[in-house]
Design brief:
heterodimer, A: 4 helices, B: mainly alpha, three-stranded mixed beta sheet, 66% helix, elongated
């Protein structure tokens, strides 16, 4: 009996069931640093130490990475035993933050990362930016992405959705943008209730 | 106790005691060339190896470990083609292929060169003939002769089947390691295990250094036979040594664990050998070398001009600023488009992590110099001047340069963001 329980537990763990949760539709979900998100369609979410990962079909097929509240000298991606020189500085302009993302992508094995259209947008009540990105993974898979970000009280908030350019990017893009659009801060929510 | 220690020391010495003095490995290629020329056979071996060279077009027999190695590398080659960081520039690929063929002679069809977008000084050779030339190498070599020296070096690895040799060395050494550790544990000296591991690791790297020396010799031999000035080969290692010295954060690897000989050693030995070739070409390479060989600066430069902007941008993205600054200082001596170099000098200061007042001032100075010297800077210079001025608080200047950027590149992908920034700066 004990063996069966261990086997089932191990199977569930390996299948990733223990890693992702399904947030309720319409309910406010807290990311790091008081950034709140309200999913309107079904997502799976996984909380790492430094970021939140949202996905609809599994992170290999589509993923929305949320980096919330990064402070000076923080990095977007950590690789054990390697020093990532791409660090956030509060003085960075929007264009430099987008370059930071692009260089972090290359640092983590992305190939030929190219930034597309960049435009100013309001994100979570702050003046921010939206950008498009395309790259290949280390094994050659062509991916596209769209991201939004802003700096608030010297902290970086960045949300980037990436997926294979054939099928999954177009399939999930609008839902990912809707989730980014739902981003707001806790105090703004309280103020809105008042 | 003393007996045990002596036993331990002798085992460690046996495993680690094959550090080559170096010089003879460099000359091995020339010795072999003499033998081949004299006897017209490719079955000859060097004293250090049991492996003969593969014949042109030959693939290893299917039942050998070498065939397994090739199979793995064939798979890797298919993956590499799909990766997307291969540089597709037609002129460059044709140029590299033709140069490889010129050096490889009858082995031309066995070697498949690929140019990889990777801002690091490197080239690699796989046992199945996949030759990778990295963009960081192309950015650093000064001319065709220097490039020929590196390609010849890699062809040397292929001809001498160094990967197979190394594969077998590693397998034999790890087998021996396991054997000695078990044997020593039996006689009650378990602590020696780590020492033995160290000795084995050191001895493997020593083999690797011997391969590199031999490949250097091949580089020199093949480039001279193709008519290039062999004295150019040593300059590459002089450059590498100086760039490393310029890098304040560079870690100096231990000679014991280093897989390559020191750049200083390579520079010195290759220089001596090159002088010998130029003085006595008939003796050394069995053919004349008119005027000490050609350098091929113009052809190489013509290929590099349209690619250099991207390569330099990739280099700076690594944020190894000491190395990049040294590279720019060397490029200034030979590149016509000085304006582009000043732009990247400005980038070097703009991208510094601290963005101190001093860095921002230096960035502005370099960008402005780019308009005064020969050549044309990339369009980004207008935008980046605007960004730097926005950081120094000079809003009017910042807005002017950003507007200029929109004027010279009205279809820029970041035009909406730049337009917004201009509006904000003018508020």
């Amino acid at each position: 009996m004990r063996n069966i329980v261990v086997c089932v537990g191990l199977s569930l763990f390996l299948a990733g069931c223990g890693l992702f949760a399904m947030p309720e539709l319409g309910k406010t979900y807290k990311a790091n640093a008081d950034l709140m998100l309200v999913p309107q369609t079904q997502w799976n979410v996984n909380k790492n130490n430094d970021s939140l990962l949202w996905t609809k079909h599994g992170p290999l097929l589509d993923r929305l990475d949320i980096f919330a509240g990064l402070e000076e000298d923080d990095v977007l991606i950590k690789i054990y035993g390697k020093d990532n020189p791409n660090k956030f500085k509060p003085t960075m302009t929007s264009l430099e933050i987008i370059d930071l993302y692009k260089n972090s992508l290359t640092y983590s094995g992305g190939v030929n990362a190219e930034i597309g259209e960049i435009a100013p947008v309001q994100v979570a009540g702050s003046d921010g930016f939206e950008f498009e990105v395309s790259f290949r993974t280390a094994d050659g898979l062509k991916k596209k992405g769209v991201g939004q970000g802003f700096v608030r009280e010297e902290k970086l908030y960045l949300m980037v959705f990436t997926a294979p350019s054939s099928h999954y990017f177009d399939l999930v893009r609008d839902d990912a943008l809707a989730l980014m659009k739902s981003a707001h801060f806790k105090e703004n929510q309280k103020m809105a209730k008042k | 106790m003393i007996r045990r220690i002596l036993g331990t020391v002798s085992i460690v010495a046996l495993l680690g005691g094959c550090v080559s003095s170096g010089q003879s490995a460099y000359e091995a290629a020339f010795e072999k060339e003499k033998e081949i020329t004299q006897s017209h056979t490719d079955e000859l071996t060097l004293s250090t190896y049991d492996l003969r060279n593969l014949k042109p077009g030959e693939r290893p027999a299917l039942d050998t470990d070498e065939a397994g190695l090739w199979y793995q590398m064939d798979r890797y080659e298919r993956m590499m083609r799909a990766r997307g960081n291969l540089i597709k520039d037609e002129k460059l690929n044709k140029y590299i292929s033709e140069l490889t063929c010129k050096l490889a002679g009858e082995y031309c069809k066995d070697i498949r060169p690929y140019v990889v977008r990777m801002p690091v000084f490197n080239a690699t050779m796989s046992p199945n003939g996949v030759l990778q030339v990295w963009s960081g190498l192309l950015l650093r070599v000064e001319n065709e002769a220097q490039l020929a020296a590196v390609l010849g070096h890699e062809i040397g690895h292929f001809l001498r089947r160094h990967s197979l040799q190394r594969f077998r060395d590693v397998r034999n050494a790890t087998d021996a390691l396991a054997f000695f550790q078990i044997a020593l544990a039996f006689v009650g000296v378990p602590a020696v295990g780590e020492l033995t591991t160290l000795a084995v690791a050191g001895s493997l790297q020593s083999f690797s250094r011997t391969h590199e020396r031999e490949a250097d010799g091949y580089g020199l031999l093949l480039m001279s036979q193709a008519g290039y000035d062999p004295r150019e080969a040593a300059k590459i290692w002089k450059y590498v040594s100086e760039e490393t010295k310029a890098d304040k954060n560079a870690k100096i690897p231990s000679v014991f664990f280093s897989s390559h000989p020191r750049s200083e050693e390579r520079n010195e030995v290759l220089q001596k050998l090159a002088n010998k070739i130029v003085e006595q070409p008939m003796k050394m390479i069995q053919r004349p070398l008119p005027q000490g060989g050609s350098v091929g600066k113009d052809t190489f430069e013509e290929i590099m001009v349209p690619l250099r902007t991207q390569f330099l941008a990739d280099e700076l993205a690594l944020k190894k600023f000491d190395r990049a600054e040294y590279l720019l200082s060397k490029l200034r001596d030979r590149v016509e488009n000085q304006s582009e170099l000043e732009f990247f000098q400005g980038e070097l200061h703009r991208l510094q992590m601290d963005n101190s007042k001093e860095d921002l001032t230096k960035a502005i100075e370099a960008y402005k110099k780019a308009f005064e010297v020969a050549g044309t800077p990339p369009n980004e210079i207008y935008k980046n001047l605007g960004l730097v001025y926005s950081k120094t608080g000079e809003k009017e200047q910042a807005a002017q340069w950003l507007e200029k950027y929109l004027e010279v590149d009205p279809s820029a992908k970041d035009r909406k963001m730049i337009g917004y920034m201009v509006k904000e700066l003018k508020k």
